[in-house]
Amino acid sequence: MSSTTTVSTELSPSFGDPFQASITIPTKRPSTTEKNKIPITVFISKTGPDTPFGCYIYSIIHPKTSEVFQTILNNSNEGLLDITKKLSNVLCKKFQSPTYVNVNGYFDLYDYLGVIKAITEFIEEKYTELESEKA
Question: pTM here?
């Protein structure tokens, strides 16, 4: 059995435009008490795979202080950088796991809360599905 699962889908936040997402998560829900080594990887775009490669961030969380450390792997513009860093930070803290996050194209700052909510809810749903399959 693979240690990760990847899903590509279109997500529609409660406010804002729908967007394409390709998300890879560990098949086992990350632990809040152990060090998680398998990263969560998220690629999002409003126009699909033909979009030029945008901002790409890697984040890790310090196991004792819960402080998130980030490095920029690719930068496209300042607005996209802020959005990508925030999403990576939220996912890293919520799941206590390293994350790779790539945001492509244009995402409005006002739509961004809906994007974060849609992605975190989708990941939670996938973990619930994976856990019910094992039971």
Answer: 0.92
